[in-house]
Specification:
heterodimer; A: 157 residues; B: 177 residues; mainly alpha; 0% strand
């Protein structure tokens, strides 16, 4: 649904832009092609790494690891979330099934936050975009934020 | 041949080779992982080209001054709001946000607003709140949102202070608003 909407927006944009100014439209398209080709190699590798990790570590094994409530499970989940970055629509069902397997809600709050915001596997892509310093500071701050959110949720829930 | 195309082919060959080697001891794992890879690539190809075209159009049509006024050093609280709105209004994985962030930065958006945009894109999604409530409870979703929102904004300004202290010496948006 969303990709289709994006595609329609892109096609509509090209059409309007082409009607207004062909030269600028050509410049926009070549800009898009150039940045796309630059993104392709790290994206290919990233998707493969994520696929391999998801296949090698089944969700049930992860669940068993976190059946024990408490600090160990809390940090394990936050750390695991920091390794991978997945889109939110994948993160929520995963967190839901982990909850059914016995992981605590506080741990899952920091898990979801690190899962979506911190990604050691996507770091190379971010470094390519914004530089090493930006990436390292953003990811460390996000990790800290995730742990704080988890701790607060533990107190409040 | 274009060096970028060549490195894409190189990476693809390496991935296929790794899966082939993996297939000898663990055929099931290799097949599953390769399947994940193909569907992952399909997902990427469904989203990324359209995003890049829209960014290209944005680059040639939107003047630098507009972005600078909306998200730049003098944009204040409204800039923070705009960055949050841009992030939450969109879907797709975080890596799709990186090129948008670069383009915003090149057009003069301040670091705090770029970080807020990335954070909002990653973890606050208004439509996704319903999904989070369904899987983990409404109380959980609302509480996490209430904690994440100020956290992301704080992260943005902390990063700006660490990366380019010059901008942060200007009054905080709260002071200005």
């Amino acid at each position: 649904m969303f990709p289709l909407f994006l595609l329609l927006a892109a096609i509509g944009g090209i059409a309007v832009s082409w009607f207004l100014d062909r030269g600028r439209t050509r410049a926009a398209l070549s800009l898009a092609a150039r940045s796309g080709l630059g993104l392709l190699p790290p994206l290919l590798a990233l998707v493969a790494l994520v696929g391999l990790t998801i296949s090698a570590v089944p969700a049930s094994a992860i669940g068993e690891l976190f059946q024990a409530h408490g600090t160990v499970g809390f940090f394990l989940l936050a750390g695991l979330g920091a390794l991978l970055t997945v889109p939110a629509p994948i993160a929520y069902p995963l967190a839901g099934s982990l909850h059914e397997m016995g992981a605590s809600l506080a741990a899952l709050a920091s898990f979801i936050t690190t899962l979506t915001m911190v990604g050691i596997l996507t770091a190379p892509l971010e470094i390519k975009s914004f530089g090493r310093r930006f990436t390292m500071i953003r990811q460390s701050l996000s990790l800290l934020l995730a742990l704080l959110i988890g701790a607060f949720m533990g107190v409040l829930l | 041949m274009n060096p970028k195309i060549r490195s894409s082919i190189l990476v693809t060959t390496a991935i296929l080779l790794i899966h082939l080697l993996l297939w000898i001891p663990f055929p099931g794992l290799a097949v599953q992982s390769a399947g994940q890879w193909f569907s992952g690539i399909a997902q990427v190809l469904a989203i990324v080209p359209s995003v890049l075209i829209l960014i290209g159009l944005f680059d040639v049509w939107v003047p630098k001054e507009v972005v600078e006024r909306g998200l730049g050093p003098a944009s204040g609280l409204r800039g923070v709001g705009l960055a949050l709105l841009l992030g939450t209004g969109s879907a797709g994985p975080l890596y799709a946000a990186f090129p948008i962030g670069i383009s915003l930065r090149e057009k003069g958006a301040r670091t705090a607003n770029i970080v807020i945009f990335l954070g909002a894109w990653a973890t606050i999604k208004i439509p996704m709140l319903m999904m989070e409530s369904a899987f983990l409870g409404t109380r959980f979703a609302m509480l996490r949102l209430a904690l994440t929102l100020p956290g992301i904004i704080a992260c943005g300004f902390a990063m700006e202070f660490l990366l380019d202290p010059g901008t942060s010496r200007e009054p905080l948006p709260l002071v200005r608003a």
